[in-house]
Design brief:
Elements lengths: L1 H24 L18 H18 L4 H12 L9 H10 L12 H14 L7 H14 L1
Length: 144
């Protein structure tokens, strides 16, 4: 399980590295008025999504302990550093949160409740995207 948790952390760190490379590759005017490509069009966004989805599926299939599920869920849900990432990545990091849904049933109710409180503080109901609403509902169901 430790290898899978390390792989999840590495996937997110590799995404940060890829974004730094993108920032050097693209100019601020790239993609302006729909011409050319910009950092938001780079394939690294889709690649991290697929990679995280695969790793989380492997973690889920390994029947994680509540502690291991918590570690993985925290990597996806409790990111306090989202605003320090480039704006093009902030939406992807928020989209990656939906991959935590298969792990939520493995969380202890206490952990789910703590994550639910933190999640509710971070995203008010009217600010959530559909994927975040799904995460919220799953956490709420597990916290009971």
């Amino acid at each position: 399980m430790e290898e899978l948790l390390a792989a999840l952390a590495q996937a997110i760190e590799d995404y940060r590295t890829a974004l730094k490379e993108c920032e050097t590759k693209y100019r601020p005017t790239d993609g302006l008025l729909g011409f050319g490509h910009s950092i938001k069009d780079d394939p690294c966004h889709g690649q991290v999504d697929e990679r995280v989805e695969k790793i989380v599926a492997e973690i889920h299939d390994a029947d994680p302990s509540p502690q291991d599920a918590e570690k993985a869920a925290l990597m996806l849900l409790a990111r306090d550093d989202v605003t320090s990432w480039p704006i093009s990545a902030q939406f992807m990091l928020r989209a990656l949160e939906r991959h935590s849904i298969p792990l939520i049933p493995s969380l202890s109710p206490e952990t789910a409740n703590a994550l639910l409180k933190k999640y509710n503080e971070r995203y008010k109901r009217w600010e959530r995207f559909p994927a975040q609403n799904e995460v919220f509902k799953a956490l709420k169901a597990r916290a009971k």
